[in-house]
Fold:
Amino acid sequence: MSITRAADCAGLARFVYLCRIVRAIRTYIQAQFLEDIIESSTNPVQDLPDRLSPLPESRELALRIAEIIADTPASDTLVLDIQELSSIADYFVICSGENERQLRAISNSLVEKLGEAKVRPHRSEGSPQSGWIVLDYGDSIVHVFDVDQRAFYRLESLWSEAQTLVAMQ
Structure:
């Protein structure tokens, strides 16, 4: 394994670890917030602050991401339901681009169009030059690969037990 690939693997491992921590913290904060509302109100849903916009359901978000990707130069798009297999996320959206320009276009299109709906990634890793971009939208994680990196890492094989919700060529 080359030094670059080893560094990419180490970086991905750190990213996955941080995602788990962020998810645990987010769950704790949400539980505390809802507990406070329930204790202080007879109708907690009605008393939710206006500044909190509801986050899209994770399945809806994953499918919306696939819709956006369909309008880009991406190929071989998959939406995998991993919620029964992992605590990292509920859905993986995996797609490929042929070159750096396409990878940039795919990721920029996702960030821009979801940003219009006030949905922003919690974190992003990678770059078009590295051949792998990861966008963490909480329960939905997007992997934008170049063709060679996707063949090398074989995420579909690693998550072969996951149910495929969407498969687009």
The beta strands are 75-81, 91-97, 123-127, 132-136, 140-146, 163-168. Residues 52 and 118 are 11 Å apart (CA to CA). The chain has one domain: 3-168.
